[in-house]
Write a structure and sequence with these properties.
The chain is of the alpha+beta class and 192 residues long. It has 5 helices and 9 strands; from the N terminus they run αββαβββββααββα. The protein folds into 2 domains: 56 residues, no CATH class; 85 residues, no CATH class. It is elongated, with a radius of gyration of 22 Å.
């Protein structure tokens, strides 16, 4: 084939629309991430041999012990509470976007912020609050500085509830200028 025979393909006049995978590409092209885009971020049940998604966080205090936490589906939750009737037990619903939790203590849930890609925490004392997610134990407002810097308005931490949102947020907060991946705020190239 000669170069003269090649056909020139012009660039599109407008950028392709954002697809469910949070990328811009032709909707006619098959994309594996688009098929996974609506899959929710979930926590698996800790029941024996269970493959279901956990709906509840069970916090229990055995005799003379520190609080223990387990994520369980409804059938395993019912069996667990029936088996441990003598222990003090509290059951909390898992918040959307929760992907893990602290196994000891009071049932703090952990998610990924959809704006900044950092780990955010839902402390038990803030369940039911209007803006419950926090960046850490010293965060009193729940505001997301990275999201505010990007959007120019007040933004609070919100959990990424789908895998596409979570992956997009993590990728947006990770620097890839060197071989070792690191957070943007720790990038030596950006500090100088």
């Amino acid at each position: 084939m000669r170069l003269a025979e090649l056909e020139h393909l012009a660039r599109p006049q407008a950028a392709p629309p954002v697809q469910p995978c949070k990328r811009r590409h032709d909707p006619a092209l098959a994309c594996n991430r688009c098929t996974e885009a609506h899959e929710p971020v979930a926590t698996g049940c800790e029941g024996p041999l269970c493959r279901q998604t956990a709906n509840d966080l069970v916090v229990y205090w055995p005799d003379r012990g520190v609080g223990q936490v387990r994520a369980l589906c409804p059938p395993h939750r019912d069996a667990f509470t029936a088996r441990n009737q003598g222990a003090r037990i509290q059951v909390f619903p898992l918040a959307d976007g929760t992907h893990t939790y602290f196994a000891h203590g009071d049932g703090t849930q952990i998610a990924t912020c959809r704006h900044c890609g950092h780990a955010i925490y839902l402390y038990p004392a803030l369940r039911g609050a209007r803006e419950p997610w926090r960046d850490g134990e010293y965060d009193e407002t729940g505001r997301c500085p990275v999201g505010e810097e990007r959007q120019g308005i007040r933004v609070v931490h919100e959990p990424a509830v789908t895998l596409a949102e979570r992956d997009w947020a993590r990728a947006a907060s990770t620097c890839t200028t060197t071989a070792d991946l690191h957070p943007n705020e720790d990038c030596p190239a950006r500090r100088s």
